[in-house]
Write a structure and sequence with these properties.
307 residues; alpha+beta; oxygen-dependent coproporphyrinogen oxidase; seven-stranded antiparallel β-sheet; 9 strands; 40% helix; Coprogen_oxidase_aer_sf; Coprogen_oxidase_aer; heme biosynthesis; coproporphyrinogen oxidase activity
Length: 307
Amino acid sequence: MTDSTFDAVAVRSWLQGLQTRIADALGAFDGTPFSTDDWQRAPGGKLRGGGCTRMLEGGQFFERAGIGFSDVAGDALPASASALRPQLAGRGFEAAGVSLVLHPHNPYCPTVHMNVRMLIATKEGEAPVFWFGGGMDLTPYYGYEDDAQHFHRVCRDALQPFGADLYPRFKRWCDDYFFLKHRNEARGIGGIFFDDYAESGFEQSFAMVKSVGDAFLNAYLPIVERRRAQPYGEAQRAFQAYRRGRYVEFNLVFDRGTLFGLQSGGRTESILMSMPPVANWRYDWQPEPGTPEARLHTDFLVPREWV
């Protein structure tokens, strides 16, 4: 969408503040501060610009937690960014966003992903075209109804002021998007996902994205606060690693953010920080019927109306 009033500086400022607020809150929750890695692209590459990666590895609660801010520009949109907008193929672009993935030690605590971003397609002599994308989704290893309901309720409430149709629409989009087609199974219990969004103009679209990003801590922290002390053993850790393998498969095969970063010549360390530190694959393995591991597949990894 073209809009001569859009304020990219305000978006970038909010994104940087969001990264700081989330890193401070999660660091306090873990008891371990996040490290800070400011980076800039080397001259002469596909991309210009830089960003900041906040990382926590081997913490008291988080096995790996990464929160990345990037603000980059390039001469040609990657194929993953123009797939839904072929008329923009070949344009220059600017992209700014915050993306996070949190992997707790405890298998009873879910992995979570959140992303909010703005893209601008540019062409000399023409008005820039902007759009937003993002959302958040939850990937439990052991399913709990109240956790799933809480997460989806916060997502719904964040979108409610901007239209009653947005949550069901973005919820379905999330269910469809975070699906491993080659496995015929979902990555997790979903949440919300949207892309190429600018239909309500800059101010309202940006306000909606801010509402989603600002809701993240309330969506996730209450869940892990009530699960963090739950005892677990090697069997639960082994199942967690098995399910983390599915997470790796999705990110490397289907995830548009990963593909965008790699296709555009992005910073590999920052792009792949979402990967779990420990994962495994088992040949033709299925959990025993009636077990909590089986219940994850039968009761949670299927599309449901949680709220």
